[in-house]
Design a protein that fits this description.
single chain; Hypothetical Cytosolic Protein, Chain: A; 4 helices; three-stranded antiparallel sheet; alpha+beta
């Protein structure tokens, strides 16, 4: 039960079953192969530098896709910060 609670605090990056598109899965419900990271830009940057996401998803990820993932994550962080104000 404790692992499920921890998992909810993470952000999922998924390679979709249909077409193999790589994107941020905020809901955690998109079908496909997933990798979890902590919801900070630093975690995403470290995962990109170490090619950890591409290794987990078993696919090469372009710089454009990484920029898109970062944009989505920054938007989600902004939403959460506004919720607590």
């Amino acid at each position: 039960m404790e692992n499920k609670n921890l998992k909810k605090e993470l952000v999922r990056v998924v390679k979709t079953s249909e077409g193999g598109e790589v994107k941020m899965d905020i809901t955690g419900k998109i079908n496909g192969r997933g990798a979890y990271i902590c919801p900070t830009i630093e975690c995403l940057d470290n995962a990109i530098k170490g090619k950890k996401i591409s290794r987990s998803l078993e696919t090469e990820i372009s710089d454009e896709v990484y920029r898109s993932l970062k944009d989505v994550l920054m938007e989600e962080i902004g939403k959460k910060e506004n919720t607590f104000k």
